[in-house]
Design a protein that fits this description.
Pfam families: Mur_ligase (PF01225), Mur_ligase_C (PF02875), Mur_ligase_M (PF08245). Its cofactor is Mg(2+). Pathway: Cell wall biogenesis; peptidoglycan biosynthesis. Belongs to the MurCDEF family. MurE subfamily. One of its GO terms (molecular function) is UDP-N-acetylmuramoylalanyl-D-glutamate-2,6-diaminopimelate ligase activity. Helix 3 runs parallel beside helix 5. The radius of gyration is 24 Å and the shape is globular. The chain folds into three domains: 94 residues, 3-Layer(aba) Sandwich (Udp-n-acetylmuramoylalanyl-d-glutamate--2,6- Diaminopimelate Ligase, Chain: A, domain 1); 220 residues, UDP-N-acetylmuramoyl-L-alanine:D-glutamate ligase; 153 residues, Protein-Tyrosine Phosphatase, Chain A (Alpha-Beta Complex), CATH 3.90.190.20. By secondary structure, it is of the alpha/beta class. The termini are far apart. The model has no long low-confidence stretch (mean pLDDT 94).
Length: 484
Amino acid sequence: MKLTDILTCVTTCETIGRTDREITGIQMDSRLIESGDLFVAVKGTQTDGHAYIQKAIEKGAAAIVCEQLPDIYKEDITYIRVSDTEDAVGKLATTFYGDPTSKLDLVGVTGTNGKTTIATLLYKMFRQFGYKVGLLSTVCNYIDGEAIPADHTTPDPITLNRLLGRMANEGCKYAFMEVSSHSIAQKRIGGLRFVGGIFTNITRDHLDYHKTFENYLKAKKAFFDNLPKTAFALTNLDDKNGKVMVQNTKARIATYSLRTLCDFKGKVLEDGFDGMLLDINNREVNVQFIGRFNASNLLAVYGAACLLGKQPEDVLLVLSTLRPVAGRFDAIRSKRGYTAIVDYAHTPDALENVLSAIHEVLRGRGRVITVVGAGGNRDKGKRPLMAQESARQSDKVIITSDNPRFEEPQDIINDMLAGLNKNDMQKVLSIADRKEAIRTACMLAQPQDVILIAGKGHENYQEIKGIKHHFDDKEIVNEIFANE
C-alpha cells in the first residue's frame, strides 16, 4: 500500500521525504521490521520506541512515524511527525489492513470478570448458528476453526488489525473480543468499529497500572463513550457501576440482571454441580454451568445474541448445549467422593463469586478447602483481600504460589497472610510449592467436600524469574485422582 494512502487516517504535523513510496508492512517493534516496512515509534510503559528508530532503519524500515524527529535524517527514509503515536498506530494499522471492522460485525466485552466466558460462548453460539466467526480472547484467538495462541487479553493494535483483517478476508461475519482496560487506555482499539459493547462488572484489579480505581473505571467507561449510535451497549444492572458505564454513550442501551427489572431478566430456579435450571425472560432453560455469576454471564450472551437479531427460542436452544470455558469453574469428581474445581479467579471479587457459587450448591453438606495464591509484580493491594475472602468462605485455606514472576513466592504469601486475623490463621496453611499445596488439599478432603484451586484456570505454566515452566492445575488434579 502507498504511504500516502496509509496516512489519510491521521493528522500529520510534519513530513520529510517521499510519501508516494510503497509500504510492505507496519510494525511498532523494531525487532520485527523487514525491508519496506513502516515503523511507528510509540512511547510504551516499559520502553520508548523513539530509542529504536535507528535500529528500525538498519533493519530496512522505509518510513518512520514519530512524535519527535531524530537529530540526523537518512536521505532515503521518510519521516512523519504526529502529535500522538499511541493514538495514531491503531488508525494506521486499521487503514493498512483494509479497515477490517467495516467488513464484519465486531462485539467487545469489557469488565473485571466474565469477559472470556461471554466472548467465547458468543463465538461458539454463532458458529452453531452457521456463521464463520472470529474470537479474540485471553485463552486463545480463533479465525473460525483455526486456533492462534494469545499472549495478551487484547493484542497490540497491529496484531489486532492483522487478525481482524484475516478474519474479514476469510469470510467471518462476526468477531467477539475481550476488551481489556489496558487496551482502552493505550488506544489499542483505536480505529476499530464496534457494533456492540457488553459490560460485565467492575471490581478492584490492575491498580498496579491504573493506580486508582477511578482511573480503572474511567478506562472501561471510555469504551462505551466511544461506541457509535448504531451500536448497542449492553450493561449489567446488578453491578453498581452498570448505569455509570453507559451514562454518556451514544449507543442504544440495553440491560440485563438477576435482581431487577431490565430487558433481559434471569433467575436461578435450580442448581447443582452438573448445571442449573434458569428462567430467562419467562422461558426455562437447562444449562451446563454452575453459579449465579455464570447465570449473569449467560444472560449477557443471551442479550447480545438477541440484540444481534437472533430469535430468543433459537438462542435458548444453543445456550442449553454450550459447555463452560476451559479453566472456568471446571469441576472434577474424585473416586473418593469429593470434588475439585479449577477456576481462573484471581481477584477478591472473582473469589467471592466462585466460593458463593460453591456454597449455593453445597448447602452445608460438605466443607470447602481453598488453594489460592497471588501473581507477582502485580497489584499488591489485592493480596490481603484475596486471603481474607478465601478465609471468610472456606473451612480450610492453603496459600501457595501463583506466577511469582520476579518476586519471591514467600514474600507474596506473607503479603496475603498479613490480611488475616488470629481466628483466620487457625484454618490457614502456607505451602509455597503449588503442586504440594494441591496434593495436601486432596489429602485433607473428605467425601462431599469441595476443593477450589483458584488463580490459574486455563494457564498451563508457572512464570518464575522470567521463565514459563509447564504447570497445569487440572493435570495435577487428574494425576492425583488417578492414584487415589
